[in-house]
Design goal:
homodimer, 274 residues, alpha+beta, 2 domains, 8-stranded antiparallel beta sheet, 3-stranded antiparallel beta sheet, 11 strands, 31% helix, 31% strand
């Protein structure tokens, strides 16, 4: 982590190079955010395709599109053919990595989104581990149960030795393999996009109240939800003094996929009772 | 190409494994399609982000998200920082590759889209070549003109030694470096999505006439445009005997970005005069 902190500190410019941000009017409530390991696990759990880097026989690192499913420990499972160059590469050299990126919206800067590299080595699972690995892949690609039986296909599990997470411009961290394995994907990940739209469309009044009470911006005029996760919401507030990003935490972390509704209702109630 | 042909021939199953396709009722007009080299150039020209495979100091191929612009010869230009692992990797080892994939629509199979690997080695351009390379990158990322001046940033041009193109399931080819360099991107690429929608929404009658006359399906009941390019259209036709993919070529290849309208109008006129 010290390496990551040092990079952030000296990253192309430093203080003063960004846009002006309005200061809070009072102390915001403390809030929790996802750890880099949790960000990484969440991105992997919510993805089913990435780019594999394998080593070609002429020594060139070979980049190719692969599909995957993740094991319970967040290890990507590939089902690849030896007819493809990356399949032959993995059979010859186990060292490999996979990068995964959040989908980019039309017109957005591809470097403004979250992405991750999982680096390590592939193994061919056997017995019960092979069955579990195939099921992990097949949850996204059911036909894999059929074509995994072809002679030219091999199931590989990427054993993750190290992880590099980039959350966007100048937001990044290295993650230890054990921290990655121990972290859990955000259970609210699949429902987050819907919840964000719903809050912005139907509960702008609640968002504004959260920004004014818990968020530390008493003079917030508008607040929109930029993202939502198991621990809280990221708001963008507009004040007469300028805009600012605001984090507001839930009263309790959400532990179940359907828990965002209860958490936002509880937060709205607490804000009204302030 | 012989390698690619052999792969296609023996690819997981062969004849009989796909869905039943209705045969033409009469001989279709000959039509031209983009070569794999043209497909590759078009995909690169229409993209600005991909996955780089570089070689980490522990020998692990390192996959990471990169942005790029393409030179006039279709060589990706990267502007990367030595603070990033891939920047340090390229400074130490020039062998590298980039994979680029068409965006995947929600719910679609990521392996059903076109993707490409450009493999070769990076060079640091100098003088006029450096200026041209930076401009190629900056056409997508104007801020690169500023940050390319930071000490930690380097401009790299990927010299393409070999190309692997995959057009979707079981549609693939290796492309020689000279063929890749000599091919041109499809000038109609940027307007193709709009033209396809417009044809389907407002000119279904023309599409059906093309399928019946030039396409070889006299009993076509419905025809929809699946894709459009400089050489013609790919239709999906429905007949009482089943569905079929149909290719209908334009009278002349389109050579300019705005040329699709004229080509489709000319084709419609020729079809009515049959």
């Amino acid at each position: 982590m010290s390496d990551a902190a040092a990079e952030t500190k000296t990253f192309h410019g430093g203080p003063g190079s960004g846009p002006k941000i309005a200061e809070p009017t009072h102390e915001p409530e403390p809030s929790q955010t996802r750890t880099p390991a949790e960000e990484a696990r969440t991105l992997v759990e919510g993805s089913k395709a990435g780019a594999l880097a394998s080593l070609s026989d002429d020594g060139t690192p070979w980049s190719s599109v692969v599909t995957f499913g993740a094991t319970a420990a967040g290890e990507p499972v590939l089902v690849v053919s030896s007819m493809a160059e990356h399949g032959r590469n993995l059979a010859r050299e186990a060292k490999a990595s996979i990068s995964i990126a959040e989908p980019v919206e039309d017109g957005a800067d591809p470097l403004d989104r979250a992405r991750i590299t999982l680096a390590g080595h592939v193994v061919v699972p056997e017995g019960a581990e092979a069955d579990a690995a195939l099921e992990a892949h097949a949850k996204h690609f059911p036909f894999a149960r059929s074509y995994a039986k072809y002679d030219d296909f091999t199931i590989y599990v990427l054993k993750v030795d190290r992880v590099r997470w980039v959350g966007g411009f100048a937001r990044m961290a290295s993650v230890e393999a054990e921290d990655y394995a121990a972290a859990t994907p955000d259970p609210t990940g699949p429902g987050a996009a819907y919840a964000r739209r719903h809050l912005n469309e139907d509960h702008a009044d609640s968002l504004l109240l959260w920004a004014r009470t818990f968020g530390g911006y008493a003079d917030a005029a508008v607040a929109t939800c930029e993202s939502i996760d198991r621990y809280g919401v990221d708001l963008k507030v507009t004040t007469p003094r300028g805009d600012a990003p605001v984090r507001v935490g839930f009263l309790e972390p959400v532990t179940e996929p359907g828990g965002l509704r209860g958490a936002t209702v509880a937060l709205a109630k607490a804000a009204r009772e302030r």
